């Protein structure tokens, strides 16, 4: 069921006056995590994601905007995007192309009366702050056809521990 219109963020996430590139947030109060996002949904070819895990175009995975990824509370740009808390907790030290390194955060994406759940595993450099970029399989499952390329959606992070 789609979230009510009252829960949709009509305005951008507030920016910190000291750092205009990132929203005001702490680990306890993360506006990215708590609001329903309204933006565009696009699709991309999946491979090795910014979180360091490899997925394919048949996976139900997604990328969030560069701003959201880079400004996620607890992330410090050490040159290794795999350490970003948005990637979820590390579950394996001996990960690679078959064994994932992280247990990704999940989000539910709504389009019309349809919804799907995706794992957040990547960073979208061309997305606006509330956009989401899906694999072809996820995009098709929600919109019916990747041929449309871009469409409006709402989406929200699921609670930690939710399937």
Would you write up a description of this structure?
InterPro entries: Expansin_CellWall, RlpA-like_DPBB, RlpA-like_sf. Residues 38-153 form the RlpA-like protein double-psi beta-barrel domain. With 163 residues, the chain is of the alpha/beta class. It has one domain (43-157): RlpA-like domain (Barwin-like endoglucanases). It is 10% helix and 25% strand. The chain has helices at residues 31-34, 66-70, 136-143; strands at residues 37-43, 61-65, 106-111, 114-124, 132-134, 150-157. It has a six-stranded mixed β-barrel. Strand 3 and strand 4 (114-124) form a beta hairpin. The radius of gyration is 15 Å and the shape is globular. The protein starts with 30 loop residues before the first helix and ends in a 6-residue tail after the last strand. 35% of the residues are buried. Residues 1-20 have low confidence and may be disordered.
Furnish the topology, listing elements before pairings.
Layout: H1 31-34, E1 37-43, E2 61-65, H2 66-70, E3 106-111, E4 114-124, E5 132-134, H3 136-143, E6 150-157
Parallel strand pairs: 1-5, 2-4
Antiparallel strand pairs: 1-6, 2-5, 3-4, 3-6
In short:
With 163 residues, the protein is α/β, with parallel strands linked by helices. The chain has three helices and six strands; from the N terminus they run H-E-E-H-E-E-E-H-E.
